[in-house]
Amino acid sequence: MRRAALVLLLCAAPAAGAEPTRGTITVPADGAKSAVVERFRFEAEYKGEYQFAPRFDLRHSGVSVHGLVFPSPVKSDIAENNTVYAEYFVPQGREKEKLPAVIVLDIMQGNQLIARGEAMWLAQNGVAALVVVLPHYNERRAPNSKVKLVSTDLVRTFDGLRQGVLDCRCAAAWLAARPEVDPEKLGMVGTSLGSFLTALTSANEPRIKNVCMILGGGGLVDAYYEHPKAKPVTEWIDLLGGKNFVKKLIAPFDPITYAAQLKGKNLLLIAARNDEIVPAKAAEQLWEATGKPRIVWLDAGHVTAAYYTMTMMRELRDHVRK
After folding, report:
1. If DSSP codes are grouped into helix, strand and coil, which group holds residue 185?
2. Which of 13, 271, 288, 313 is most buried by a 10 A CB count?
3. Domains of the chain listed by start with CATH number
4. What pLDDT is recorded for position 15?
5. Full-model pTM
């Protein structure tokens, strides 16, 4: 997938003509009786000015790529992190149609190659795709900063995850307002770390209907606690107060907490039977808790799942176009 993404970029031509445009993303406040949990609500209406600019046309693929920038609804203590960056992959020549559209989130490495590859494939197959950069990645990281989205600094990690969810809710509002997008066919696709943010966002964003989580899961403490490679982590868990205490601590950011909300979505899980990073047990637990939706099992590990790239891509395409 990485090689394919690089080849596509090398074949790209700068987009000609249009100047950057500006507009306003508006997300209404979530009421007290909203189905959105308090942690991920907009307590007041969000209005942020976005800038949308053509970047390049991809030769022979029929896809155009645009850059989107808008202010994060959450203000962290790092200035660079308070601006959201995204890339919009859209089929050419179909501006007058109403296309399905998805937000795409990357893996923990975060260089966006996997997310861009997925977005490129989807756009070639008639699905508009917006790759959103998560907090503390790429342009959102201060020079020489060592701050990461996920770290042992739990307060910053939880704040960053919340910010990522609210950023994606703004992105969903932007997508829903696009003239070429069918607002009734919005979705999310996330791989590995991105799958966890996809679960949290889609469970708390009514606009999102089609959801695909790749190499993710839920019930994380239970899934990891007995894992052979997790002994250093379980020792840390025991020091913090034990398994049940840690389960309560991370519950707001564990996808299984939102199983009831996810049941109402068109959900697809793709999991690896020999996953050495996210145990297969985590996928099984989330699958059962969400009503046993369609799940595709790969005879692979977390990294070697890449051998099944085209299998996953076809599943993504068919799922989000429903």
Report:
1. strand
2. 271
3. 88-219+254-320 (3.40.50.1820)
4. 58
5. 0.91
